[in-house]
Amino acid sequence: MLDKNKPGPGHSSEGRDLSGRTIVITGGAGFLGSHLCRHHLEAGARVLCVDNLSTGRLRNIEDLLEGHDFKFVKHDIIDPYEPGEAIDYIFNMACPASPPKYQLHPIRTFDTSVRGSHNLLELAMRRGARILQASTSEVYGDPAVSPQAEDYRGNVVTMGPRACYDEGKRAAETLFYEYNHLHKVDTRVARIFNTYGPAMDPEDGRVVSNFIVQALQGHDLTVYGDGTQTRSFCYVDDLVAGLMALMYTEGDLADPVNLGNPVEFTILELADLVLAETGSTSALKHLDLPKDDPKIRRPNIEHARDALGWEPHVPLIEGIRRTIPYFAAEIAQSAKAQV
Questions:
Q1: Whole-number pLDDT of residue 10
Q2: Residues with catalytic roles
């Protein structure tokens, strides 16, 4: 059994040289996208950051804007995108991933996954670029098995408040499959499990950001349901290393790959950890469990270990300790702006 607080082995993504390569990162001003931009710049690549700023934030990339090898393009991938220069790789990270965010505009969320993926696959085919799709553990729905491996077909709902995101991502995977098989596009699909860390929007609405912000502000921590539902939380640096390993490992890797931390926590365990690490005396406030909210979530990452030599190594307690100062600074800056 894995020790929840014991670091695992490192991953193999450090030290990559991407000099002379041009990378398109859609959703590049978002949480994961902005981290990918930084990692690629550190590796010597030229980065084309594409974002419509519907949920992405310029403040995530503002220190990169003057860089010679970084270009920001405000664009919605629902419309075709033409870079105007040679490109080598495309990361499709564009789509709201927080339920409160994507449920505000459900049809647009679905279109972003489907039409956006179609547009980018066409671009990859024209340019001979390798393309990676940021899919999600939500394709498994409310799983009836645990942990979830890539061959599990899911327990899904096609008509419900979460379906615009879940089914959009499933449809995008189908497009990636067909472009790979019919047009020989070099595709990669990452099924991303819960990820957290600096650059998250304090109003993101997902459980880690909610708990930390609420604890720091002295508000009750909102626990949906009885709190015994489980999630597996992956620190952002580990997840980005997995994405880069998936993109840059050579070989036939068109089939989906789970990326996430296989160590499982209940929501109550997460709440207790956040309260202890923030020193907050906030209470817990239980609310009704949202419709179609998954009861369990835990990835089987054997495929990632075998094919990529990757697994996460930042335990939750360490990741939370790295993340709290970021949210504290965001809260302080927001308060200062309102004075």
A1: 34
A2: 165
